Amino acid sequence: MSPAGLAEGSDGRARCWWGAATPDYVAYHDDEWGRPVTDDRGIYERLTLEAFQSGLSWLTILRKRENFRSAFAGFEFERVARFDDADVARLMADAGIVRNRAKIDAAIANAGATLALAEEGESLAALAWSCRPEIERVPGDDLVATTEESKHLAKELKRRGFRFVGPTTAYALMQAVGIVNDHLVGCAVRDEVEAERDRRAHASR
């Protein structure tokens, strides 16, 4: 690993140190983490997975991701919002996911909150992206788990009925969906992510 917190993979690409740790991480780091997600279903999926990750390894969640997608109706929040007691019992019996009742209840409640926003002409994605910082920090040795923007996002989500979304989960969501670009300077993916975010920003104007 270099002093800048980078690691070189077998393909010679420099990555954030964690992104070269396992093949699962390489794929997630290169193809998904930090790349912009701007639709409600996509944001809901990442929010749900980040909440389930709390207290666990992210690798555990990655390896169970397809099971989560199957269990939660492809993260179609309109369908998850209608889950009932039988669905909760089904999820609690599903060894392919993380069987935590509080997190399962939160995932269903958050689907309902996402649907309520849509029915009011609002958007979970728009709410999340409204918290993009005007001036982004350049990630380095000063690793952070929360920011003022993630505290604000967590507060706004809770105000709208979302559960299990503290500032740390909110910041992990912001990193995952490209609201902030926390790939390290020198990481081969950082400039790709920035270019993709710029293209999305220009296209939305």
Description:
With 205 residues, the protein is mainly alpha-helical. The chain has 2 domains: 1-33 and 186-205, no CATH class; 34-182, Hypothetical protein, domain 2 (Endonuclease III, domain 1, Orthogonal Bundle), CATH 1.10.340. It contains 11 helices and 2 strands, in the order ββααααααααααα. It has helices at 23-31, 40-53, 58-63, 65-71, 77-80, 85-92, 101-119, 124-129, 148-159, 167-176, 190-203; strands at residues 6-8, 14-16. A hairpin with a 5-residue loop joins β1 (6-8) and β2. The longest helix is centred in the middle third of the chain and has 19 residues, at 101-119.
Q: Provide mean pLDDT, rounded.
A: 94
Count of all domains: 2
In angstroms, what separates the terminal alpha carbons? 40 Å
Large-scale geometry: globular
Main sheet: which strands, in order across? 1-2
User: How many whole angstroms does the radius of gyration measure?
Assistant: 17 Å
Poorly predicted spans: none
Q: What summary fits the major beta sheet?
A: 2 strands, antiparallel
CATH superfamily of the largest domain: Hypothetical protein, domain 2
**Total helical segments:** 11
Return the string of H and E elements.
EEHHHHHHHHHHH
CATH architecture annotation of the largest domain: Orthogonal Bundle
Sheet-strand content, in percent, reads under 5%
